[in-house]
Design goal:
alpha+beta, UDP-n-acetylglucosamine1-carboxyvinyl-transferase, Chain, 4-stranded mixed beta sheet, 23 strands, UDP-N-acetylglucosamine 1-carboxyvinyltransferase, cell shape
Length: about 425
Amino acid sequence: MERLVIEGGRRLEGTVQICGAKNASLPQIAASLISGAPLTLTNLPDVTDIQAMLALMEHYGVALGNRTAHSVTLDAGAARNVEAPYDVVRRMRATILVLGPLLARFGHARVSMPGGCAIGARPVDLHLKALTALGATIAIDAGFIDASAPRGLTGGRIVFGTPSMGATETAMMAAVLARGETEIMNAAREPEVADLAQCLCAMGATIEGAGTHRILVQGGAALGPARHEVIPDRVEAGTYAIAAAITGGHLELTGARLEHLSAVGQALEAAGVQIWPTDRGLMVSRSGPLRGVDITTEPYPGIPTDLQAQFMALMTIAQGASMIRETVFENRFMHVPELSRLGANITLQGTSALVRGVEILRGAQVMATDLRASVSLVLAALAAEGETVVNRVYHLDRGYECLDRKLVRCGAQIRRVS
């Protein structure tokens, strides 16, 4: 099993290319199942979650053509409506996104309950509620979701009690082939949702309001060949912005979009970090001291839960104290004991963490527990005195393309060893 050996205390300087968004790519890959016409996706990140999703598409009979590290043409013309196996879907939660396309196209789908990082329950009930509102009959059988609509789906009104990015994406994809109009209320507003809508519109769908709380989908449109470029990854951009901040460095993040990180940018500026747009992306720099800042994770446009662990790592060396409140997932503080091994002073209080900044972190052996927790340990190690060994870095490779190599090019001292 691979691990990273990191010698801390080096200031990062240079340029980092931000990859396409993993969380935008996954539903767009699933969307290829809706149509029998080819869909070409570009700017895909070369990470293991994408590779697993493409393998799942091949399981359904989708042909993968013109494949490179960052693009692929998916042709679902000969797709088969078969059962999604547990061995594939256990690896990540995003496999639930095939349920809506399969049901809409074939009238039936049977998909194993999804897996992924152990950061909370993350129930699929909102996905099922959306499909039920479109006329589907749902049953849970031996760990499988069995969805049926033999006469096809019918447009309807879907009202989410809380915004859910995945459920909103399921609703949009299913509604594209449903008869009539579908209204999705209290929809998730994330850029990834709007990007999926743009991809579906390129395929021939008619969707209005994506990126707002109310989305209208006119179902039944004829779908055809399409080409779509995936948006840049705002979580990756936020991670490297924090890497510059925690090392007192200076990084240009090419391809990053400040409008996708407004709340994060405000929090960083309050902490003493400078962040501004350039003609190529974003510039992030810190020369003065870090200040403790309170944050709360929220659905977009708030601070994303996927950046909570990274921001906590930053606050471990800030002056004063900061309160970090997690409102999205109930079990997303598993990085706290590992940060404490590096000398961080963190007190958990239910869904909040009180972080008292320390003068210095010191290297130690730490263990990654999930994707975002693992990168928070890397960030802390960059600022720590001495050597840190981050174990189980396969979590990192699920969502970050060449993280260690990108950091090394900017001055970090990192070795990947078996």
